[in-house]
Structure prediction request, 229 residues.
Amino acid sequence: AQTVTQSQPEMSVQEAETVTLSCTYDTSESDYYLFWYKQPPSRQMILVIRQEAYKQQNATENRFSVNFQKAAKSFSLKISDSQLGDAAMYFCAYRANISPDSNYQLIWGAGTKLIIKP
Amino acid sequence: NAGVTQTPKFRVLKTGQSMTLLCAQDMNHEYMYWYRQDPGMGLRLIHYSVGEGTTAKGEVPDGYNVSRLKKQNFLLGLESAAPSQTSVYFCASSPLGDEQFFGPGTRLTVL
Prediction:
């Protein structure tokens, strides 16, 4: 069975600095998607970035980028120039790209709480 | 375009009471999901639907029932609430099963 592990329950970073959140996953599939979601104190889940496993190029979205290491099954999120508004829980999620076996279910990590120090 | 909405936002129940949570989406998405989120844990899938009239069990379905009579609505029912069902409940929808769009959540307390 697929699993997603976020080994850092909490991380803190100084405002304007860079922080990297870790995520590892276990799967025997070769085709899948990976996601990072953000959950601020408002509780709203917001998609930050996504990565298709067949793409070698790491995804980027403004200050957010990933380091996707397929062989190592690692999918870390780098946040550059951290801002106070980045403070949130960050969840890593995996989705196999095989239908209908997976029925497009997301497998979620337990989350990392990111604290931004002013 | 409201996205995904959930009703109610907060609810307090007594043990044994029943209630229904409503999720509505106006994006014409095929897939809909109900999750629960407990402190220190990620999201756990309760039930999901891959289209109107269909439902399926997720990781933690016991004590819950769902219905998807209309494509835009996905209802989550608690037949006899228990304190273990105290949680925050999230609904999500997805067009093709990849990116999921989430509602704001419902905080449920069972006394």
The mean pLDDT of chain A is 91. Chain A touches chain B at residues 4, 9, 33, 35, 42-47, 50, 91, 95, 99-100, 103-106, 108-111 (CB under 8 Å).
